[in-house]
Amino acid sequence: PVPDFAVVLDTSGSMNLNINTSSEDEAWMAQVGGALPDDNPRKARVLTEPTRLTVAKQAFAAMIGQLHPDIDTRLITFQGCEGTVDQGVFRRDARQQLLAGVGQLSADRGTPLAASLAKAASLVDGRLKDALVVMFVDGEDGCGQNACEVSARIAREQPRLRVNVVNISESKLSNCIADNTGGRVYAAREVGEVQKMLREAMEEVAATPACAGAQATGQ
After folding, report:
1. Coil, helix or strand at residue 77
2. For residues 59-77, b (16+ Cβ closer than 10 Å) or e, as one string?
3. According to the model, what pLDDT value does residue 202 have?
4. Residue 24 backbone dihedrals phi, psi, to 5 degrees
5. VWFA domain: from which residue to which, for each copy (predicted)?
6. Nearest Cα to 15, choosing from 133, 108, 100, 120?
7. Terminal alpha carbon distance of the chain
8. Residue 54 belongs to a domain with what CATH number?
9. Domains of the chain: total
């Protein structure tokens, strides 16, 4: 059977920051910059394109382009600390609709990382059959929950669920999610890098597995 597949796409406010924003600039934005006018030079620099969200969208599109035709995609986004949004399941014939919808997403408010992980896990199997969740995130939970604890619980209850984390910032605070579930962490600072890593991350759900060429030449 094909594995269950879900994607969590971080749409919190920090995804509006430039992809190369330092941790110092991110802290400054949270404490000071947010209240300053948009023409403040430092703030303007931190908010220039390509933003983290732009890179995440491009990487997401590349991933969907590599996806095996038999695999459906469930998409989960954020709605501040109030909760998460299950955008639904998209079959092969709805992938263009999925990409168009993702292209329209904007980023604001908090980061319910733990809640989104729990939501994704609740919507896939991971017990009787394999499941994969890919999370495009830029930091830790910002809503008072512990994503590391949630991932440890998932590892116990859904041993066939792996979570790959595509990290779109300098923060390593969400790496525990992948570590606990047997997944991998990918540092995504530019689109080309992300696409290369996704090739590996998506191997079990890709239309043409990365190892297929090596197997063919070995026969």
Report:
1. strand
2. bbbbbbebbbeebbbbbbb
3. 63
4. -65, -45
5. 2-199
6. 108
7. 26
8. 3.40.50.410
9. 1
Distances (CA, A) of 169 to 16, 141, 156: 12, 14, 28
Residue 122 structural domain: 4-218
Over residues 40-82, the pLDDT tens digits come to 999 999 999 999 999 899 889 988 988 888 999 999 999 999 9
Phi-psi region of 42 (alpha: psi -120 to 50; beta: other; left: phi over 0): alpha
Inter-residue contact 151 to 183 (CB < 8 Å): no
Residue with tokens 């300098």: 170
Cα angle value 65/189/117 (rounded, 5°): 65
Phi first, then psi: what are they for 171, rounded to 5°? -65, 140
